[in-house]
Design brief:
195 residues, 10 helices, single chain
């Protein structure tokens, strides 16, 4: 059996862009542990809806802080390789909905940024064609299209700010997205399970 490179893989970007589908695909195809989206878990723990959380800046700030801190804690429990649904892109939501972006930005551990620079980071672009399917997900508050575009821009800015290399996935076709992921992972030495 082939041992995968000790590299972390992140799928990042706006809500409803298809990140979770790509995380699931990558975990299955390459036999990797998977870190699910933290925001959904924090939301379930608090028994509140996104609308309730975003009704006040203080509750949105507390929620974003909880999500941000749990992302680091959950990743610290894993050993590379693994695939994660999100990274510091959770901060893009603090820019949009909370009041503590600067505070959270200053708490990012330096070693985490170094870890990101050595990882494979995909920024998954939102697609208008995905909005209908994403809107039926009962565990998500899908942003308006303009909001998705802003979150996408904030996400890209965060990685540029920290000099984290990333690959953009902009295709709407599942086959094209998967092929791009496979090409990138093959270039870094990953092998499909069973090869």
């Amino acid at each position: 059996m082939h041992t995968q490179p000790p590299t972390r893989i992140y799928f990042t970007g706006a809500d409803g862009s298809g990140k979770t589908t790509l995380v699931d695909y990558t975990a299955r195809k390459y036999g990797l542990p998977m870190l699910n989206e933290i925001a959904r878990n924090v939301l379930a723990d608090g028994r509140r809806t996104f609308n309730e959380i975003r009704a006040e800046g203080s509750s949105a700030s507390a929620f974003q802080k909880a999500v941000f801190e749990r992302q680091f804690r959950e990743e610290a429990k894993l050993t590379a390789p693994y695939v994660s649904d999100r990274s510091i892109d959770n901060l893009a939501y603090a820019v949009e909905h909370a009041r503590n972006f600067g505070e959270l930005l200053r708490t990012i551990p330096t070693d985490y940024i170094e870890q990101l620079r050595a990882s494979i980071v995909f920024v998954v672009r939102p697609q208008r064609s995905f909005r209908t399917a994403a809107a039926t997900d009962p565990f998500r508050l899908l942003s308006e299209w303009d909001g998705q575009v802003r979150i996408d821009a904030h996400t890209e800015m965060l990685f540029k700010l920290f000099d984290v290399p990333f690959m953009v996935i902009a295709e709407a076709s599942a086959a094209a997205r998967e092929a791009q992921v496979d090409w990138c992972l093959a270039a870094r030495g990953f092998k499909e399970v069973g090869q």
